[in-house]
Amino acid sequence: MKIAPLRKTVQILSLAAMVATPFLNSRGISAVSGSFYSVSLGPLLLTDPLIAIQPLLAILTIDRLLLASALIPAGIALVLGRVFCSWVCPQNTLSELFDPLGSRLRLFTLGSGPLIRYTVLAVILAVTLLFGFPLASLLSAPGIISVQTARFIYEGTVGLELALIGAIILTEIFLVRRVWCNHLCPVGSLLGLLRCKKTLKVVINEAEAHPCLHCRECAKACQLELNPMGGSLAPQCHNCGACVDACRKMTGEKRPLVFRF
């Protein structure tokens, strides 16, 4: 079974839910409410772990309810990796949509690596701790997109926060491929830290790897410009499965690349 069609279906359903939630709320139906910052599913509250720890850093106060609401998203990341980023996040969906447009227009490449990612995250957390300013909320692309979608449905207008989304798209088209998801996004950076030895990941099936060590089709399929044959992909990989699909297409039943816990 190819992963791409399933993932695309989940992405479309996520976008549909993001639009349907405020639309239904505006008509008095509130079984589901909220945004990608924090969403209520009936009595269940789910919060982005990065947003949940902000009060702890900003005002040095432990909000047990808020922290508890981050346990399920954190647990999903611990088991399945950064699947929110590649399967649900609307910013990733937009970046994937515009990625082919920039194939001949981009000027630079940054490759991949965790240094920039975690330097940015550290700065954001330090600003929150030192100045009590919730900077992460202003830099959460999925949160901004979902809130501004709701605002448009409720009021017919959008805020200046969408300028960040436009800047991300233009930068990725004309300057650096997938720079937000690969290097800057604080939401994905924190989720990337929530992993253990048993977290789902793409690995080399050593028994079948010999036919394609120099094929590089898996690396070409990766929008984050990772090389699955080069070793560990954590914490950059967000388990989209594009490399696994490309590998299966080239090798048939051999499957040198596989998902494994």
What is this entry, summarized?
The protein has helices spanning 3-25, 49-52, 54-58, 64-69, 71-80, 83-88, 90-98, 114-131, 135-138, 141-155, 162-174, 179-184, 186-193, 217-221, 242-251, and strands at residues 32-34, 38-41, 44-47, 201-204, 257-260. It has a domain at 3-25 and 43-55 and 66-197. Helix content is 54%, strand content 7%.
Helices and strands in order, then pairings?
Blueprint: H1 3-25, E1 32-34, E2 38-41, E3 44-47, H2 49-52, H3 54-58, H4 64-69, H5 71-80, H6 83-88, H7 90-98, H8 114-131, H9 135-138, H10 141-155, H11 162-174, H12 179-184, H13 186-193, E4 201-204, H14 217-221, H15 242-251, E5 257-260
Antiparallel strand pairs: 1-2, 2-3, 4-5
Helix pairs in contact: 1-10, 7-11
Helix content range of the residues, please?
40-55%
**How many E-type strands?**
5
Q: Mean pLDDT across all residues, rounded?
A: 92
Tell me, briefly, the overall form.
Answer: globular
Q: Segments where pLDDT lies below 50 for 5+ residues?
A: none
Based on CA atoms alone, the radius of gyration comes out at: 19 Å
How large is the share of residues in beta strands? 5-15%
The largest sheet is: 3 strands, antiparallel
Q: Top keywords for this entry?
A:
about 260 residues, mainly alpha, two-stranded antiparallel sheet, 15 helices, 5 strands
Structure description:
This protein is mainly alpha-helical. It has a domain at 3-25 and 43-55 and 66-197. The chain contains 15 helices and five strands. The protein has helices at residues 3-25, 49-52, 54-58, 64-69, 71-80, 83-88, 90-98, 114-131, 135-138, 141-155, 162-174, 179-184, 186-193, 217-221, 242-251, and strands at residues 32-34, 38-41, 44-47, 201-204, 257-260. The strands form two sheets. It has a three-stranded antiparallel β-sheet. Strands 4-5 form a two-stranded antiparallel sheet. Strand 2 (38-41) and strand 3 (44-47) form a beta hairpin. The longest helix is centred in the first third of the chain and has 23 residues, at 3-25. It is globular and about 55 Å long.
